[in-house]
């Protein structure tokens, strides 16, 4: 998303503007041309950041590139993000698309999720500027770890936002139950629980809604849907 005054209100992220420089691995690097004035910047409180000449919108270390998109912008400019992902996502080991959900998302998110699934991007959904900033902070803090650690940090934040049970035994039991479904991994199960909030809601979801879960492709969505609708046979 271009953060120009024509697309979103401009708010100053801080009283002292960082200088443009080559990105430092100890700071969150921000693409000034595209992100200056983005309201999420004023909520970055737990990491230091700097303007930098980078391809992505944000860089968390040298290996992780993050693009930011609001669905409202995407509805007006549907080809924008695909072009950005193809042109500005090269060179990063970990590629994250951070999406602000600020319009009715169902069909739009399904298309974005499938595109990310096919092109190796991790889709992360947020519902406010403040939540987007918290995800950026989590990603930056996880920058020296692998992609799974970064994803886990995001899912833990979403688990707390949804108010899921603090009982980790209960959560782990739900994860174990879901991984009994053929081809569903632990990561898939954690994402499903973070997206829907409970096994019951996952079981009641249709395929279209299952496809809104980040990283879940049509094959796995179909298997999950079929699993909860299969008749139990007496052994």
The gist of it:
The chain has 235 residues and is of the alpha/beta class.
Count of alpha and pi helical runs: 11
Q: How would a textbook summarize the main sheet?
A: 7 strands, mixed
**Residues in helices, as a percent range:** 40-55%
| Strand segment count | 7
Reported CATH architecture of the largest domain: 3-Layer(aba) Sandwich
- Shape label: globular
Q: What proportion of the residues form beta strands (DSSP E)? A: 5-15%
Coarse structural class: alpha/beta
Keywords: DNA damage, DNA repair, DNA-binding, Nucleus
Main location: nucleus
InterPro entries: ERCC1-like_central_dom (IPR047260), ERCC1/RAD10/SWI10 (IPR004579), Restrct_endonuc-II-like (IPR011335), RuvA_2-like (IPR010994)
Organism: Gongylonema pulchrum
Annotate the secondary structure layout.
Layout: E1 20-21, E2 28-31, H1 32-35, E3 49-52, E4 58-60, E5 64-70, H2 71-76, H3 80-88, E6 94-100, H4 106-119, E7 122-126, H5 129-141, H6 147-161, H7 168-178, H8 186-196, H9 199-204, H10 207-210, H11 218-227
Parallel strand pairs: 1-3, 2-3, 5-6, 6-7
Antiparallel strand pairs: 2-4, 4-5
Region (Disordered): 1-29
Main location: nucleus
Organism: Gongylonema pulchrum
């Amino acid at each position: 998303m271009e953060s120009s005054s024509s697309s979103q209100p401009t708010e100053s992220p801080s009283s002292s503007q960082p200088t443009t420089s080559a990105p430092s691995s100890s700071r969150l690097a921000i693409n000034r041309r595209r992100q200056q004035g983005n309201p999420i910047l004023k909520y970055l409180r737990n990491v230091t950041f700097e303007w930098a000449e980078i391809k992505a919108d944000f860089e968390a270390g040298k290996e992780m590139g993050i693009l930011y998109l609001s669905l409202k912008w995407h509805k007006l400019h549907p080809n924008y993000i695909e072009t950005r992902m193809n042109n500005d996502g090269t060179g990063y080991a970990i590629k994250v698309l951070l999406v602000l959900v600020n319009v009715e998302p169902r069909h739009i998110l399904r298309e974005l999720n499938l595109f990310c699934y096919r092109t190796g991007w991790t889709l992360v959904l947020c519902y406010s500027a403040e939540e987007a900033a918290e995800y950026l902070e989590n990603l930056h803090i996880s920058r020296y770890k692998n992609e799974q650690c970064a994803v886990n940090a995001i899912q833990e934040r979403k688990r707390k936002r949804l108010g899921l049970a603090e009982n980790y035994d209960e959560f782990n039991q739900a994860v174990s139950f879901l991984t009994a479904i053929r081809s569903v991994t632990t990561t898939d199960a954690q994402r499903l629980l973070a997206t829907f909030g409970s096994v019951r809601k996952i079981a009641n979801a249709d395929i279209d809604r299952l496809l809104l879960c980040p990283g879940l492709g049509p094959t796995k969505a179909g298997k999950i849907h079929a699993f909860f609708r299969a008749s139990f046979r007496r052994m």
